[in-house]
Amino acid sequence: MHFLIGEFAHESNAFCAHPTGFEAFRQREWYAEGDDVLDLLQGTRTVVGGFIDAAKRGGHSLVPTLVASALPGGPVRQEVFDDVKHVMIAGAQRAEALDGVLLALHGAMSVEDRAGIDDPEGSLVAALRQVVGWSVPIVVVLDLHSDTTDLLLQSADLTLAYNEEPHRDAYDRGVEAVERIVQIRGGEIFPVRSREQPPLFLPAINMATDHGPMHDLHQIRAELEQLPKVIDISLHGGFYGSDQRDAGLSVVCTTDGDEVLATTLARRLATEAWARREDFIVPVMSIPDAVRQALAANEPVGLIDECDDPAGGGSADSVAILRGLLEGGVARGGMSTVKDAEVAAAMAAAGIGTELTVNLGAKTDTLHGQPITVTGTVATIHTSPIPTDSWTGTTYDAGIIGVLDVHGILAVVTQHKLVTENIDIFAPLGFDVTQVQAAGFKGLGLHIRQALAGKIERFIPVDGVGVTHPDVRKLGTFRRLRRPVWPLDDLPIDAYPPRRDSSQ
Ligand SMILES: [Zn+2]
Asked: How far is the CA of 145 from the centre of ligand 1 (A)?
């Protein structure tokens, strides 16, 4: 068979002041068109890597349109959305005798306000549908932190969300998408879907799938998926930074021709999620208290900053924890990471061993606190790409990475934003993180705990500043999101499922 493939992935944080332009896709994650897509992603454990391998194994041919993926940040610029959409549509128009379309979309994209697009992914898939018609199946793979809309689901034949957080199953879902599209095209299965959306708008702080509420929900999901006629049940956690009408948790159940079963199962899992809603909330500690606890412990303690998470749209330049470590009297510490292009360049120019006084951090916007003036010694300079994690085989180029030793606290300063939640960033820079009393890490605690397992066992989520705060009530004013939703609004336990539902 002959499949069109493409990827357009961005998690857009509505509270992030800077829109995401082409440079973010081209320089800071990946962008490729045509056959360059195969060169770029073949052999990686990404969704598109899964498309490529499974197609090859099945003897299918691929028409790559483009792949564009950027780090989370502000809403995507309108011209980027229009251009990417144009390239995909033109690819679909040019392709002859297509048997299907395979897409990797994050599912939490927003386009800047002036574009007036409330549902970018839905409108993209709907536009592709118009080109390929209804006889050519479209299968879409989405992130676990995706939002879903009726337009998106109605425009695709099948949507599959990652089942794992961290997202180690991206590749597997890509492979599965190919297997499913072959079945759909061959008339072996007839997917029908139901989408259930309880009034839930959850932070990402406790969505790990190997423990906690998401783990329990995925156990139920896996059991329900064993029932006859069930093709897939996807549990979309939603993205807390989305200010889109339909943002938030949703369940999509796809069955082979049985709409009633799809509705029943989607509602069953959505009801289970609603019942566990309090379990998704994790308290955070003030930074001074966390530093005191770390100093009283006789083991290294990690302070987790989910408030300035570069993987959620944070600017990665808050120095709130670094300030706390210095003021709290930590003698051996670490801070990963502070994005500050100016200071990184000054450190590289000064060279290793040089003492510098710098005004560090909080330069991107006014939402990530105040800079701090520190004097330190340049301990190392690193300029090669850093592994993204231990499973996709991808690396990330953050430009200059310098370590500034500020009275024993190793501050990792980067030229570009760097996501380090899935690695021990100190190791490739030549430092042993087990020697610290306390170190700050930006990102989701569940990733950081796994990345540092065996090195640091004790972690404290702290109350920092930034656009990814795990208390969603602190993020800002939501203008488009449907209301009421919990926990932004106080809803009683019997608010879901609806007692009288006219659609039943
Ligand atoms: Zn995600």
From this structure: 4
